Amino acid sequence: MFSISIQQKQYKTYILTHETANSQLEVVPERGGIITRWRLQEQEILYLDAERFANPELSVRGGIPILFPICGNLPENTYTYKGKHYTLKQHGFARDLPWQVTDQVTQDAVILSLTLNSNEQTQAVYPFDFQLIFNYRIQGNTLEIQQKYTNLSLEAMPFCFGFHPYFFTQDKTQLQFEIPTQEYQDQRSKKIHSFAGQFDFNQDEIDVAFKQPASQSASVIDNSRKLQLTLEYDNIFSTLVFWTLKGKDFYCLEPWSAPRNAINTGEHLTVLQPGATCTANVRILAKFF
């Protein structure tokens, strides 16, 4: 019923399968611990730009990239800690580094555990010791990402975290949104706009942030695919970001623990004391109708 297999493609790929539910998840640990594919009932849930994925010099556009220790970009890619300037590129480094597989479970559900530890490379741009442990779990029509962030430093560690899922769609005009807030902030103009469940997809790019959602659940109905996706997230996720590009078959609905530039502003920033651990869960439920 539950199994994990390995295929050597361009990268070693772990394939998690729940046969009864006809659900399959593909994970590439060495390419940022990323989920590259989720198929349910022979349908693709996620989008992946295969050409960009094949080029290690380019950021991945597709799947579910991991955001840590920042979400979004920083002014001039710079933040200041204890009077010293550090450079961090957009969304941080976790999505670019190799993760280690540390456990596999195939009873009652199928779970793949990945770990990322700080090293000299991360300390050069983020002067903290840390350990991240993620469990990717599929059961039935649900994908769950269980996260554990631990501060191994001798001082308090500030950070943000989140995910950047790319959902496949064939016709964005057939999307209906149920997002638990009535307004969003445009990331470029910084203006606040009211939201009634629809976007103007004639724009070249849509990049907006829904701050402080009123509940821990948002959903998108894709009438062209007869598919409803429900995103459930713990209360620590203070921001939902929606992003898409005209002419591309994807939209992103991203749970972030804090908004852009939080490591400089402190807005909703998570600060872990030495030896402390923070846990969080994100779940995606897919239902065809």
UniProtKB/TrEMBL annotation:
Gene Ontology biological process: carbohydrate metabolic process
GO molecular function: carbohydrate binding; isomerase activity
Listed Gene3D superfamilies: 2.70.98.10
CDD domains for the chain: Aldose_epim_Slr1438
Top-level lineage group: Bacteria
Protein name, as recorded: Aldose epimerase
